[in-house]
Structures are given as structure tokens and as C-alpha cells.
Specification:
The structure is a homodimer. Chain A is an alpha/beta fold. The first copy, chain A, has 14 helices and seven strands.
């Protein structure tokens, strides 16, 4: 099959049958957005296949990539297939580009049960926050039962992406103030499991205690995020971490939370898509910088918010929806 | 002047000249929404008058109303005029209805320098979250230099309303776990000043310590919310509280934060108005329950989010904007 000239429908059929190169091409289409991406979205949305999703986030240098590698090995030891989506909102590169020199590519490159892919925002409407859920559905439709989503930084988009999964793992290090920084970055609220990685360094017990203390002050009933200590480079604690991730997924499934969360995420995604579409339509209708100029008019008190909203809406409705 | 038959423009002119009954009528128009409210919004938006705004929130029974009364007395002792907006998202009543039997009405009823008004959502687009900023501009345009916004509960709308002010005061009581509940309700993030009210009860020191500990773990640079102990019923600590509120306002003004926050709030308000307008237009265009049915289609995987957004947008654009 010549992938380069295949239609989204042909690529989708091939990917569903296990063709990993076709899957990689589909994810490129998702990244780029536009009409082909829409076709892929519609196909994958109708698939009955579902994947368990695990987001892994934390400050740069905390050892997330090594942790993901070790988790992949743990999953493979049990015989399951696994996908890895490495997301970097700050990078315009994707595919093999940033992963070529990474250890894990060498380690898992010949393993047919592992599909690794990095992802950047190359034009998808709404950026990575909307491209990632779509990519996750494509990975599920291709038959991967589990996908790990690794984010590179701890900005708002990264946290949003990592928490749009069933289980969110937050990685900190045994450094003074690391737990507090994680809290300030809004990670305490999204964490289902905490990892103190590089726990062979001094201060691991203190960092763990800081986290437990913050959890005492903020956790609601239902699920209290466990705090796991790991040394990913020497595989210490990975089995415990994988066990806690599975325990969380069992917890979600047991009381209907998983179903409810997934439905809530879809409803939120629909609203986000609608907002992004309308914002784009408004930019089209008002011309380059037109929406920004209206915001300026509002904050400078030249136009009240209601009059400004009128202008946007009449511009959109005057314009025929040929750009849908 | 016969207020009942006055136009919004006439009422606005009278309120700007200090007519408090005209001001009360204007606020009723804002509550009710629709075309008259739009006229009021446009007029008040062009006013150069600004008011300092202070939000006061906390659990029911924490003594917020008494605190507000005492703050009003402290402001009046200094000779300044002050407005009070009591906001209850759960109540369909407003105006004199829920305030008739309140102590402060009797105490400040004859004081021309105090304007007290309760507010409910009676039809304003976007509910109280959008009606309150509009009401605050009307109060500022009427010449009130300071407005206290008291919310009744601690739901999401209440927190949103109270934090859409320059200074947000969060009230807790010396009860075991009260500080932790405040944190869980998202109040730690929005607080500029904490009050431990009813501090003559046992546990005040512990509650204060809990708050300080949580602040240690979460506060970013710039401003650390002070924790003030008060016994509002006997006027204890009110001068300290008022001093901290003024200190916060001076802090905001000094480094340009006030200007930046107000501009950010206006930009957010514009986006919220636009979203509310579009949601309303979508409901109009799709018919009763039409938007909800589309959300159902999405979460049931009958329609992908992009196709659902298409349906909304083509329904809006097919419809002429006669309902603007």
C-alpha cells in the first residue's frame, strides 16, 4: 500500500488492521488540522474501541521520559500493547524529529507492541488541547488498549492535556520546595497518583511528607492520591507505580466514575470545539486582528461588552458558512 | 420625577445626579436583562467614574452580613459614601424583599451616604456572573466610590462574583476543618484577605494557623493574604480588617496590578458575554433543548464534536440576526 497517496479512509482502515505506518500518517493528519483531520475525527469517533489513558506531567528534568520508558517495559512484561504520545506545546517539531536521539526509541524501536509518537500543534483548530483527545481516539481505534501521554512542561496547556486522561500522574523530585511548586502550578488538583522520582537523592521523605500534608488539606472524599517513590533509572518502585495506576483505573471503573468522566470530557470537548470554531469564524469575518481590536475597544471603554458581542455576531451571521 | 415611566436614559441621568431611587430602578433593569439593560450597560460603560470594589464571601453563617455592616460603619466614620450589593444566586427575590427584616437596613436606612441593595438573577443574559459587573459599573457611575459585594453561599457562582472585585475577603470561623473546607471550595486561590470571624470562640488560633500553613504551601510572590481575627458583633478587629483592605488596594494601585486586573476582567467579561450570546442564539436557532440534544449525541458517540459544532454554527448563520 502506498501510504503517501492514500485517503484518510484508506489510512484509517489500514491502521485499524494494525498497520503502524498508516497510524503514524493518520496522526500527522490530525496534527495538521483542516478537512482531512475532520474526516479522521469522524471515523475514529464511531469506533467502539476504547483505550485506557494515563497522563504523565511534571517539571522538566523530573525524569518523566525515563518513567514512561520503565512503565512501557512493565506493561510489555505483562504482554499488553501500549502507545506513547509525547506532547510538547512549545515545539513545532513532531514525529521522529525530537525523538530520534532518545534512548527509548532505540530500546523499543523493534517492539511491535509499542507505538511511540511525539506530537506538536501544526495547525489543528484549538491547538494541542483539542488535537490530543482526537489523537487518543485514533490510537484507541487502531487497537491500542493503553496510551501514556507524556507532556514536556508544566504550563497550562500541558496540565490540561495531561489531565484530559483517565489517570493523571504527577512527577516531582526530592528537592526543597518541589511539592509546593507542584501545588502552585495547579498539579495537586489534577493528580490521581503522585510520584517522587529520583528518590535516592536526599530529601525524598520530606517531599513525600509535604505532599501528604497538602493532600490532608485539600483532598475530597472518594480517592486519595497515593504518593509513590521511584528511581526510574534503576527500575525501583516502577511496579508499585504501575500497581497504583491500575488500582486507580479499577477504582474509576468500579463506581461509574470512568464513564461519567469520559462523558464530561466529551461534553467539554464539544464546547471547546464550538468556541474555537466561533473564534475562528469571528477572525475570518472581522479580518486579521479584528477580534483583538474589539477586545481593545472594550478594555479602553470605547465599546461595552454587549455592543462588542453584537459586532462579532452580526459579522459571523452576515458571512456565509462556506468556511465550515 | 415619575420614575415608573422614565426611560433608562432619564433614570441614568437622575442616578448620576445622586437620585438613589433612580439608581435602584436602574439596578432592577440590569437584573431583568433585555433591551433596557443593554441601554443602561452602554451608558454606564462610558462613565469615567470608578469605584473600588470589595467582595466578601464565605460559608453561610460565618457572619458576613454583620461584618459588612461593621465595615460600612467604619467607612462612614471616615466620611466616605459606600454601596452594598448583596448577591444570592439561589434566590429569585431581590430589592427590598430579602433585606426588609435585616438589622442593617434599620441601622443605615436613614443614612444618605449608604446605598444597600440585594440582587438576584431575573433574566439577565449569563445570570449573576454577568449582571454583577454591570451593576458595579452602574453604582460607580452613580458616584459611589466604594462598593462591597456580599455573596450568600460558597458555590461556584458566588466565588466567581466575589472574586470579580478588586479585593476579595474570605470569611471563615474558628471551627475545626473550616480553613480546609475553604481551601477545598477554591477560596484560597481567590482570597486577598482572610478573616477568622467569631474569633472569641475556641479554636481561632488553630484556624489561623491552618490558614497560614496553607498559605505557606501555595502563595506566590507579590501579596501574601493577611489573616485578620474579628468579632464582628462587638466590632473587634474591624479597624484592622478595614486597614488590610485599604493596604491591599494601595498595593494593587502601586504596581499597576489594579489597572491590569481591571482590563483582564473586562476582556474576560467580553468573552463571557459573547459565549452567552452565542449559546442563546444557538438555543433560539436549534429550538428548545436542541443544544442539549447535540451534547447527548456527542457523549453517546453518535456525532463527533466537530460535526456537532458544524450543526450549531450553520443553524446560527442560517437564522437572520433579528434577535440581537
Amino acid at each position: 500500500m502506498t501510504l503517501r497517496h492514500s485517503s484518510p479512509t484508506e489510512l484509517y482502515a489500514a491502521a485499524s488492521d494494525g498497520d503502524r505506518r498508516a497510524l503514524a500518517r493518520l496522526l500527522s493528519l490530525v496534527e495538521r488540522g483542516g478537512a482531512p483531520s475532520r474526516q479522521v475525527a469522524a471515523l475514529a469517533y464511531r469506533s467502539a474501541r476504547e483505550a485506557a489513558t494515563v497522563g504523565i506531567t511534571g517539571a522538566p528534568g523530573s525524569g518523566k521520559s525515563t518513567l514512561v520508558d520503565r512503565l512501557v517495559a512493565a506493561v510489555r512484561a505483562e504482554g499488553g500493547d501500549v502507545g506513547v504520545l509525547a506532547v510538547d506545546p512549545s515545539s513545532p517539531f513532531s514525529g521522529g524529529a525530537i525523538l530520534g536521539d532518545r534512548v527509548r526509541m532505540q530500546e523499543h524501536a523493534l517492539d511491535e507492541g509499542v507505538f511511540i509518537r511525539s506530537m506538536a500543534s501544526r495547525g489543528h483548530l484549538g491547538g494541542l488541547a483539542l488535537a490530543v483527545p482526537e489523537a487518543l481516539r485514533v490510537l484507541a481505534a487502531a487497537g491500542l488498549p493503553l496510551v501514556l501521554v507524556e507532556t514536556v512542561g508544566v504550563g497550562q496547556v500541558e496540565v490540561e492535556v495531561a489531565s484530559a486522561t483517565d489517570t493523571t500522574v504527577v512527577v516531582v523530585n526530592p528537592r526543597w520546595g518541589d511539592a509546593i511548586q507542584a501545588n502552585k502550578a495547579g498539579l495537586l488538583e489534577v493528580a490521581d497518583v503522585f510520584v517522587v522520582n529520583k528518590a535516592d537523592n536526599p530529601g525524598a521523605a520530606e517531599t513525600r511528607r509535604d505532599l501528604e500534608q497538602m493532600l490532608d488539606l485539600s483532598v475530597d472524599a472518594g480517592w486519595r492520591p497515593p504518593v509513590v517513590q521511584t528511581v526510574a533509572t534503576s527500575d525501583d518502585g516502577i511496579d508499585v507505580l504501575w500497581g497504583e495506576i491500575r488500582r486507580h483505573q479499577a477504582h474509576l471503573a468500579a463506581d461509574g466514575t470512568l464513564e461519567r468522566r469520559r462523558r464530561d470530557r466529551l461534553a467539554r470537548e464539544f464546547r471547546a470545539v464550538l468556541s474555537a470554531r466561533l473564534a475562528r469564524d469571528a477572525e475570518h469575518a472581522l479580518g486579521e486582528g479584528g477580534l483583538g481590536a474589539l477586545v481593545d475597544d472594550v478594555v479602553e471603554h470605547r465599546l461595552d461588552p454587549y455592543a462588542a458581542a453584537d459586532e462579532v455576531i452580526s459579522a459571523i451571521t452576515r458571512r456565509s458558512p462556506d468556511h465550515a
